[in-house]
Amino acid sequence: MRDAVVAVVLRLAIIALVLLAVLAGRLLLRRWQAVRRARVLQSAWLPEVSRGEPAVLLFTGTLCSDCLVQKDVLAGLAKSAAPFRVNEVMAAKQPELAARFGVQSVPATIVLNRDGKPVGVNYGLVGGDVIAAQLETAFGEPPGAVA
Question: Where are any strands of DSSP class E within 9-143?
Answer without folding.
Answer: 55-60, 85-90, 108-112, 118-123
